[in-house]
Write a structure and sequence with these properties.
Blueprint (H helix, E strand, L loop, with lengths): L1 H11 L12 H21 L4 H25 L6 H18 L1 H6 L11 H29 L3 H23 L4
Helix pairs in contact: 1-4, 2-3, 2-4, 3-4, 3-7, 4-6, 6-7
Length: 175
Amino acid sequence: MLALVHFFIELCLLRRNPQDLPASTTLFGLVLAVAVVGGLLLSITAGASLAAGLAQTLLDLLLMLGVLHLATKALNKQARYMQTATALVGADVVIGLVALLPVSLAQPVATGTEPGAGVLLAGLMFLVLVGWSVLVVGHILRHAFDLSLAQGVVIAIAFDVFSFVVISTVTQGAT
């Protein structure tokens, strides 16, 4: 199990590639389950209700895996789906767990107090995490679709914007 955790950390540091993962539905299921728990933890830490956190987490995973499925099918790269999906979800878990720190720093200490340096630090950390996440997804897409890193990054940014719009539209008011 530690080797698996180490692999995903190495993947997020761009030292490993998605094709280094086995194409295993069992591994994919395990990583998916951890992603749901991690997404719920992140959402609740950010102040969302359990229902809203579950909805956001499941919708995010559904969008990511659905778009990936359509892309691999359209580009005739279905054989890469399982490894790419596992890599994307696993990397998302790692980055999501790291994001717990800035999310918890951004929470108000007491009601009615002015935001302090913690909120500014959290914002800067979150900005770095978003950049890191885009780079990691770009790296994974580069290997899955035989793209340049820049092309993968552009696709990652476009998907993040698309995902944000869809999830915020669907879950608006569900907090």
